[in-house]
Amino acid sequence: MKIYHKGLLLLWAVMAGVPVAVMAQEEKNVAVNLSATGITVGEKVPYLEIGNLHNYYTVSGDPVRSLNLRDLRGKLVILDFWATWCSPCVGMMPLMDSLQREFAGRVQFVSVSSQPDSVVTPFLLKLRKGKKSVLPYATSDVLLRKAFPHRLLPHYVWIDGEGRVVAITSHEEVNAVNIEKVLSGGSGLNQKADQVIAYDRNKPLLIGQNGGQGDNMVYHSLFTRYGEGLKTLSWVNPELSRGTLLNLDISNMYAAVYSDQTWIGRHRMVFVGKETDDFRYQANVHDAKSYKREHNWCYELIVPREKKGMLRQLMIRDLDFHFPYADVDTVTMETMCTVLVSTGDNGMLRAKGKERKLEIGQTGFSMQAMPVIGLTSRLDAVYMQGNPYPVVDGSGIGFPVDMKLDCNISSVVEVNAELAKYNLKLVDKPFKTLMLVFRKKVGAISRL
């Protein structure tokens, strides 16, 4: 946007706050380089008046109270936007005073503040401690800030002898070497990108893009009640440093997070006492619609890459915090299981090659060069979820196997018919395995 187009400069001069163009983009929560919305590098500066000028004199020594930028043509003008509360700004004052003396006649610094004279002048007198300064300054500025919008201070605008902006920088670029470079017609100064994006402190950060897109997010933990319209999901991926649980009850949230080496389904959950009835949906106890609204939750955790190995541990910590009334832990215990047992010689199963391969579907299963647990874990986690007991490996086979089952692998009867050719069988019997035990802490209340 060229702000020196007819009528637009006047609009900026009378407006309070940021330019209309910036406000429009803020409403869209788009990151804006604020400096680029005003007079930018390469553009000529219109005849702007510097008012409320102090410490600037004519050749005869008379004070000058206002100055037009056109009166400084032929010199390199460096506008220094600053404030008394800005430590880097104040720290630059002695250096700028020194540079003004060194480059007298060729360079003109002007310090510009939006603060009133009643604040700025006493502050500078105290800062100088009686020492004379050759650095002019303007107070109560409105017009220049509109012409060169910015958010972060200090802010420097470099204008060459022809009235063209050659750089907009931070204070790191203000030194004798760079001044000589610009005076010699060179450039290459690091430009200042003054990003601004809308943020409402009365709303959660990043929700609805409040404060940005979250592209630079390092750690994020979010917990909400039931999400209308959201699908049910459990996804925990330490390699991606992220876990997401959507519209799950307490039991399924904990089960998803604890399912590391062993997948934990309904048949691996033990609920102690009626006090835990609300930890999971029960058709004979709950109304489905009201239960999900009252007892289903959404949760997400994103951790830094270096913390990915702690993802599950940190998720358990968060769940324990939000559900302090739930006492949940894994226990290896003897319980009824559907156990894969050997009924004879299993030598025919020994893998003939080393390449691992797995093919699985509702009507068949085959694997090559894989441990037997490759079968039992998938039956337990996916295909026999309706089985009353966990499916576990008790065959004692310690070598990789080749196996092919042509049957409905959700049916224990059909699977057993196929397993017989390998001298294997699924048998219901007590067996030690990993279980997830739920209890309710006495006297504990929800934080939500």
Mind explaining what this structure looks like?
This protein has 448 residues and is of the alpha+beta class. Helix content is 23%, strand content 26%. The protein has 3 domains: 8-196, Glutaredoxin (3-Layer(aba) Sandwich); 217-323, no CATH class; 334-437, no CATH class. The chain has 11 helices and 21 strands. Helix 7 runs antiparallel to helix 9. Residues 39-198 form the Thioredoxin domain.
List the helices and strands and how they pair.
Blueprint: H1 8-14, H2 20-27, E1 32-33, E2 49-50, E3 53-54, E4 67-68, E5 76-81, H3 87-102, E6 107-112, H4 117-128, E7 137-138, H5 143-147, E8 155-159, E9 165-169, H6 176-183, E10 195-196, E11 220-225, E12 233-237, E13 242-248, H7 250-258, E14 269-271, H8 288-295, E15 297-302, H9 311-322, E16 326-342, E17 357-361, E18 364-370, H10 373-383, E19 391-393, E20 401-405, H11 412-419, E21 424-440
Parallel strand pairs: 5-6, 6-7, 14-21, 16-19
Antiparallel strand pairs: 1-10, 2-4, 3-7, 5-8, 8-9, 11-15, 12-13, 13-15, 16-21, 17-18, 18-20
Helix pairs in contact: 7-9
